[in-house]
C-alpha cells in the first residue's frame, strides 16, 4: 500500500454505501451497485474505493457469512475499516468477524434482532471502538442494559447516540459491583 493510498483511506471520505438495497446475503455486494453520494469516492489504481466506512444499513441481512472475503473484493483496504453501519437488518447476534477489524471505531447495530446481552462481550477486543448503537434490539429490554454495555466496553464514549458521562460510568461501576460476581467468587461458589 502506498502512502498516498493510506492517506486517502480516511473516515472523512464518503462511505461505500449499500443502504436500502434489499441485500439478503453479503455476497450480493459484489454484484450490487453502491449508492452514489454527494461527493464521489476516491479509488485506488486497482479501481477499488479508498474509504474506511461501509454502510449496509436498512437491508435484510441475517448473517455476515463471507464478510471478510467480500470486503476484500469491494474495498482497497478493508483492514482500515473504521465505521460499519449494520443498523436495521435482521441480525440475531454479533458476528465474531466484526472483531477482526481492529481499526473499527464506529459500529451501528441498532434496529436488529440481537437477543442476548452477552453478545456485547465479543466487542471488548476492539481497541478503537468508541461509538456503538444497540437500541431497538431485544437486548435493550434487559435490566441493566446500558450499565452492562458500559462495564463491558469501558472505552465507549458514545452509546446509542448519547454521550457517555462520568455519572454514567459511576452508575455502571455500582451496577457491576451489585450484579456481576467476580470470577474467583464464581469458582468458589461452584465448589
TrEMBL record:
<keyword id="KW-0677">Repeat</keyword>
<dbReference type="InterPro" id="IPR001611">
    <property type="entry name" value="Leu-rich_rpt"/>
</dbReference>
<keyword id="KW-0433">Leucine-rich repeat</keyword>
<keyword id="KW-0963">Cytoplasm</keyword>
<dbReference type="Pfam" id="PF14580">
    <property type="entry name" value="LRR_9"/>
</dbReference>
<protein>
    <recommendedName>
        <fullName>Leucine-rich repeat-containing protein 51</fullName>
    </recommendedName>
</protein>
<dbReference type="InterPro" id="IPR032675">
    <property type="entry name" value="LRR_dom_sf"/>
</dbReference>
<dbReference type="GO" id="GO:0005737">
    <property type="term" value="C:cytoplasm"/>
</dbReference>
